[in-house]
Specification:
Distance between the termini of chain A: 45 Å
GO biological process, one term (chains A, B): proteolysis involved in protein catabolic process
Helix content of chain A: 25-40%
GO cellular component, one term (chains A, B): proteasome core complex
Strand order of the largest sheet of chain A: 10-1-2-11-12
Radius of gyration of chain A: 20 Å
Number of domains of chain A: 1
Low-confidence stretches of chain A: none
Structural class of chain A: alpha+beta
Protein name (chains A, B): Peptidase
CATH architecture of chain A: 4-Layer Sandwich
Oligomer: homodimer
CATH class of chain A: Alpha Beta
CATH superfamily of chain A: Aminohydrolase, N-terminal nucleophile (Ntn) domain
Shape of chain A: globular
Organism (chains A, B): Stutzerimonas kirkiae
CATH topology of chain A: Glutamine Phosphoribosylpyrophosphate, subunit 1, domain 1
């Protein structure tokens, strides 16, 4: 499985991905799911992937291989919308190429992507690309997208996140969301890859990797877990009628 | 959709169910999913249902209709294990009866059940009955079961619940779990039906219904939501390396 979240906020973008893949619970491996494209001072395009790993890796490989030509590629498309269309088109190409009916044997070849970033001259953007290759854009009302195992980590985002949340606070929300997901689903796991982008910086950051035992993540997990237990203890006493008394 | 949780703790049992059913988002209705059988001083058997409503209602109707005969029924089976087997057998009977291939048209007729309670002379028990009619029992290690839309509300149970949790505290955990689920999935909704059973009381409580605007539930939701936001604010500051600085 996989869990990726991307946020499009007033101050910039936040991306966090886990790195666990599995083909059955007896076949677990670590693969990066956060991929960075860009030209410093001109554009940053971040891709996150979920679903069939062969499909998503082929899409990323083709996108990288084609960076140095005249045909439309992630280094020359004029807008982020065009970047998302290019990813969708490459996804369709890979799935068609790999889906000989005699070979797929019922395996789900589909992948989904989050595509976010900024190209000089326009505002930052974030797209959620479906396995069909079409996509939707984030808005002020819906400032985040998730792909993969999204449910365990959604309640905290719904409660605590809005368009005006600061990047630092949003990143902490994302870490809590990952902590909840990792605790409830074995197939989502560390390390986490994260990347924070500030509007109009047009930098191409290399992001940060949260490894097992990372001091800050451990501190956040522990303080959050203790805090939740404390909060539960402090809830008002249950009326007798609730307890059937 | 549906969300039901049942807990088997050192001091007794806690059951909470929502009451929203839907056949598409344009066809939403309220149906009780917590059903109580019992003879005061002798036995309590609580059933919670998820899945196809026609199937689960037929199972409950047959179980009620057959209470007054010599054949095995929920008022005369000697053990809770036998009660769970009887529910499973009735489920198979209903699904076979209603599943003429020419009629089901791809509709999923399956239902799942939680069956818990106590029969005089034995300890309380809790079973999670699969759509196939077979079932597993809760244990000290796994003191709760969920059916229906379980993911949004699972992290708080995994963090805060164990076999030795008090009934009152467990009930508050369940209410928080429902709050998270209701916020994230429109197809789970109020009113909630809840029932708390203390070991060896052998009472047949009628439970409590949490309606829209219930003062205690509202107070819990509000205190929890505010507390979470406060906890997030108090988390340690994010290191510069996380922010790519």
């Amino acid at each position: 499985m996989t869990y990726c979240v991307a946020m499009h906020l007033a101050d910039g973008l936040v991306f966090v991905s886990d790195s666990r893949t599995n083909a059955g619970v007896d076949h677990i491996a670590t693969f990066r799911k956060l991929h960075i494209f860009g030209i410093p001072g001109e554009r940053l395009i971040v891709l996150q992937t979920a679903g069939n790993l062969a499909t998503s890796q082929s899409v990323i490989s083709l996108l990288r291989q084609r960076l140095h030509g005249d045909a439309p590629n992630l280094h020359n498309v004029p807008t982020l919308f065009d970047a998302a269309r290019l990813v969708g088109q490459t996804l369709r190409e890979v799935v068609e190429h790999d889906s000989a009916p005699s070979m797929t044997a019922g395996v789900d070849m589909s992948s989904s992507f989050l595509v976010g970033g900024q190209i000089a001259g326009a505002a930052p953007g974030l797209y959620n690309l479906y396995p069909q290759g079409n996509f939707i854009a984030s808005t002020v009302d819906t400032p985040y997208f998730q792909i993969g195992e999204s449910k365990y980590g959604k309640p905290i985002l719904d409660r605590a996140l809005n368009h005006r949340t600061t990047l630092e606070h949003a990143l902490r929300c994302a870490l809590i969301s990952f902590d909840s997901t990792i605790r409830s689903n074995l197939s989502v796991g560390l390390p986490l890859d994260l990347l924070v982008y500030r509007n109009d910086s047009l930098e191409v950051p290399h992001g940060y990797r949260v490894e097992e035992g990372d001091a800050y993540f451990e501190a956040v997990r522990q303080q959050w877990g203790n805090g939740l237990r404390q909060l539960l203890q402090e809830l008002p006493s249950t009326p007798a009628s609730y307890l059937g008394e």
